[in-house]
Amino acid sequence: MLLVLPKFLWRRKGPARRPFGRVAAAVGVGVVLGSTAPVLSAGPASAITVQVEPGETLSSIAAEYGTTVAALAAANGITNPNLIYAGTVLQLPSSASPGTVTVAAGETLTSIAEEYGTTVDALAAANDITNLNFIEQGQVIDLPSGGNTTAAVTPTSVTVGPGETLTSIAQQFGTTVSALADANDIGDPNSIYAGATLLIPSTSTSLASFSTPAGGDSAALPAELLAHPSRLGLYPDFTSAAATYGVPASLLEALCWWESGWQTSVLSVTGAIGVCQIEPQTASFVDDVLFPQSDLDPYVASQNIDIGAAFLANLLDRTAQSESLAVAAYYQGLQSVETEGMLPTTENYVNGILAYSSIFAAAS
User: Are residues 231 and 267 in the same domain?
Assistant: First the structure.
């Protein structure tokens, strides 16, 4: 039986370097060849070095170690940031020793990463954290060497450097490719040019980032959705998928609204893809087990929604059509929900989605 890991448990263990190589191949910088395994070592003058893996780019390495493409290039005398080779040993830029921060009430890895100028992945790696959605008040977090011990101020704009992409810029400033593209009216996220000035969005969408809607006009769709006609254009896909797989359309719409804000190009830190934030393993489960040879592509918005609907239908069947348990299992994993109950973050997730489901149902 194929085990589909819950969203918040599908994390890299130990020193594994990258969640999914396909992402780097699709949107990262550069092309690298070879098959050399990664090696971390102490280089000259106590410098830290890293050996490039097949498929890695300066962009992905910079994101993992809390630095920038420009800083890596400068530290290694690289004149073409788009070209590095597997097996190359790179010196990581020198920086101050990592500091620490004590988690305050309501803080998350995302908010801490944004405040201290680092990334969620870098924080998780520095602290051996496998559940990116769960940290405790009072917990002491080590800041990775790329982070600052004083709060970092996110600029309102940035000039694109040679070799930079929307992916590397999004990682550097704690936002998403989709948010950058929306903020700058970019139709093709794979085409930006050195010297271009980009606006940095003040906020970004992340997993389980919305708040449970307050009372008011229950028929009013979220303002963020109404402001983006391209996202509203996904309605027929939700209606079709809900009918095909036998799930409530409003529940599917609310689930994917909470997950991504109906953004087609959102990619989470765990590798979850698109509108319904589909993990690659979930896509395989749907294709191999639930609907063999369906060959649904999570990178295509309508098919991403189909995968989400198919997986939600399976969870509804396995929970006797309990919407709250099925939604909890989509996030936490069914086995975990059954054995441990809903975690606090899961309860917030479920309550928010069920509240939005009522809104989408009333507005239909």
Answer: yes
